[in-house]
Design brief:
Blueprint (H helix, E strand, L loop, with lengths): L4 E10 L2 E11 L4 E5 L6 H9 L6 E6 L2 E2 L10 E4 L11 H11 L4 H14 L15 H13 L5 E5 L7 H18 L2 E6 L2 H7 L2 E6 L2 E6 L1 H6 L4 H8 L3
Parallel strand pairs: 3-8, 3-9, 6-7, 7-8
Antiparallel strand pairs: 1-2, 1-4, 4-5, 9-10
Helix pairs in contact: 2-3, 2-4
Bound molecules: adenosine-5'-diphosphate (ADP) and magnesium ion (MG).
Length: 239
């Protein structure tokens, strides 16, 4: 059972800067939705609003049929992977993966089961006793994704998770994330400024510009029937 998200008439300003303007997005259960747009267009602000890390000025966020607009982040059933995937440097990979579960007082047997499951899925089983300093960039990013996976979330939120990786790793991890989505069927909202990443991963893309959604459609429609010149230029020309 996957979870859908409805975002209705969302607005947010930082002082005089109107960062999110009347955002309306409907994320189908199990969809891979990408928020795509140039730097500064409001992608992270929107993702943080969904996560509850940022307040909004008006509008509604509904997750799994429940209005969570004023709900604490921890009660929204989400797991987030950030661009700067700060792992705990003194803890082993195993501890990094289980840390959030321990804080939540998940029973030990369940913690071990979930860590083993995520480690298998991400092919990091042989890394469990290492520390982050002994891992490559790609391996660290796998651990960061694993940390979100073990939390058994209804929705995964990714904020430019691959932008710190080199081109080769980025391609590899793209394939990996796509596979994860296909295997798990979990709803994903994924932020990137990389058109190729968006076009290969998404079932649906919200192209953003200046705090607004210019077009919200599947990759093929965006490519064949761009609604604006901006969309045409943005998804038409590779990064
Ligand atoms: P993106 O993730 O698309 O690069 P952001 O959502 O981070 O864009 O930022 C959107 C706009 O809001 C930018 O102009 C940014 O400078 C501004 N902004 C983001 N966070 C803050 C903040 N905490 N205070 C003031 N302005 C902010
Ligand atoms: Mg951002």
């Amino acid at each position: 059972m996957s979870t859908g998200i409805q975002i209705r008439s969302l607005n947010k300003s930082y002082g005089a800067l109107h960062v999110l303007r009347e955002i309306d997005i409907e994320v189908d259960p199990g969809a891979f939705t990408v928020l795509l747009g140039p730097s500064g267009c409001g992608k992270s602000t929107l993702l943080n609003a969904i996560a509850g890390l940022d307040d909004v000025d008006s509008g509604e966020i509904v997750i799994g049929g429940v209005d969570v607009t004023d709900t604490e982040p921890s009660a929204r059933g989400l797991a987030m992977v950030f661009q700067s995937y700060a792992l705990y440097p003194t803890m082993t990979v195993r501890r990094n993966l289980s840390f959030g579960l321990r804080v939540n007082r998940t029973p030990q047997a369940e913690v071990e089961k979930r860590v083993a499951w995520a480690a298998d899925l991400l092919q990091i089983r042989e890394l469990l006793d290492r520390k982050p300093g002994q891992l490559s960039g790609g391996q660290r990013q796998r651990v960061a994704i694993g940390r979100a996976l073990v939390r058994d979330a209804k929705v995964f939120l990714f904020d430019e998770p691959l932008s710190n990786l080199d081109a080769k790793l980025r391609t590899e991890m793209r394939v990996e994330i796509k596979r994860l989505h296909q295997e798990l069927g979990t709803t994903i909202v994924y932020v990137t400024h990389d058109q190729i990443e968006a076009m290969t991963l998404a079932t649906r893309i919200a192209v953003m510009k200046g705090g607004q959604v210019e077009q919200y459609a599947d990759p093929q429609t965006l490519y064949e029937k761009p609604a604006t010149l901006f969309v045409a230029g943005f998804v038409g020309s590779p990064a």
